[in-house]
């Protein structure tokens, strides 16, 4: 690998921090180190240092982080004061008046990120038709005094219908900034200028709640990287692009699914190289599994969703996360049933087999007992202890009155069932038949579980990519730089001329730079409470948009309605290509690293290999189940095909 112009991707997971470096000629090298949960930045620098690249050799560094997710899960973000229109100060508590669980009446939604005592009412009102009550100087002064008396870390200003006219929001935000320049002030229209006040307010609050923590983390990380001779980091966004650190710190809410998005981007690149258009993806790490969907070679991007119970209505690569990973702990509930997760052994102490103090059996320990993971060394500098893993599973087996092997198999099946449900949610629930897709299995555990998951969904093809154990890091390294702009566009498509569409597209394009430009319009039938996204371009008119929407509606739901189609919002994405988008394995590294069936470092086998068979990969382990045949791919990795019954 050359010593200049390396592009690096660093993905922080629950157990391992992965680093992939790609040279200009496309050669990839990868390393894994244990995650440092007390400060993720320590693991990032350690993963880079593990490559021993010369100082200054890395010229592009993209980071996938769980900082925002952790802040929302652990509720350790900033103290936020919310300024809301009088009469609409309870939006965060009221939500959409949906139940936390349909059948469990005792279940509760997570508490809002802003306490009721920290909401300040603003005596102003805009309706969809104009200003009903103006925001005057006296009210601005009163709100500023009330906010400063609460001494917040962050202020979020979210006023009714500001997506249509943000004059009141801007005026109040400017007054707060002038009164205390050191105060972080977030105006909701700066974050999400679209309809739906609850989602707009909740997204803006998530931004304010997370921004100080993200800023502190990136400042510390940047200082460590400078000291080590590395460039300032860019950060992967939930939408599958990357932002420079300074820009990312001002768009904290867009980082909520930073790490998982990198894996889907990497999987899409491998699929394009393999000539496969449609696939489901399963990224199995130490603490969780992430299911995704790729259609026509591109990751599916959705308008938003909830993270840790907090709605964030910003574009994100479709990822369905479940608490089922290699470190998920197996346990017995009060009814005597075997359960797996959601508790995880994480990086410390980790699975019992890691020999780092873990005592409770995990999914990884069960795989070791079943002989699917070798007893020797493993990636990340971890030596596996088969005897300790067996003893831990045996203690659980004794309580169940079952054999060790049967208990281990049940642990794996329980984890598989949870992951299969996630794969159905990203495919069947969106009108996609998984049987026409391949399954891409990656992460440390993806290749181990891929055959069983494919069988559960009736799929016949599995792709295990090269660098499977660190594919998220590879995806980060090749991610394009992406900038986005959005605007409300509420209108019947019948009244939209080609000139109207072109003007709206050009107005957004003027706000961001980039070579590759795409526009997405959210549309719906009048009266619907949800929208579908369709592609638009300058030159389209309302009739073309309506036809495209109805085709998408028919494909997803199987019918159309005799109603007017209306546009809701327009979003523009401008991107520049990522570095070294075509990648290959280091020719000096073993192309295939197998067990009994394949000589260590030997050439790819010419004939397919029949399961059951375990294949040790450089950064993961592949389990070829009975009834499957594995074929080595020219680009590296494996294709698995299910034999005809």
Explain the overall architecture:
It is a single chain. Strands 13, 14, 15, 20, 25, 26, 32, 35 and 36 form a 9-stranded mixed beta sheet that branches. Strands 12-11-4-1-2-3-31 form a 7-stranded mixed beta sheet. Among the domains are: 6-71 and 219-233, 2-Layer Sandwich (Nucleotidyltransferase, domain 5), CATH 3.30.420; 72-213, Rossmann fold (3-Layer(aba) Sandwich), CATH 3.40.50; 328-414, no CATH class; 482-576. The protein is α+β, with helices and mostly antiparallel strands and 645 residues long. The model is unreliable at 587-602 (pLDDT under 50).
Overall 3D form: globular
Instruction: Provide the CATH topology of the domain at 72-213.
Output: Rossmann fold
* Rounded mean pLDDT score: 88
Strand content: 25-35%
Structural class: alpha+beta
Helix content: 25-40%
The radius of gyration is 25 Å
For the sheet with most strands, the description reads: 9 strands, mixed
Strand segment tally: 36
CATH architecture field of the domain at 72-213: 3-Layer(aba) Sandwich
Keywords:
single chain; 645 residues; alpha+beta; Nucleotidyltransferase, domain 5; Rossmann fold; seven-stranded mixed β-sheet; 27% strand; globular
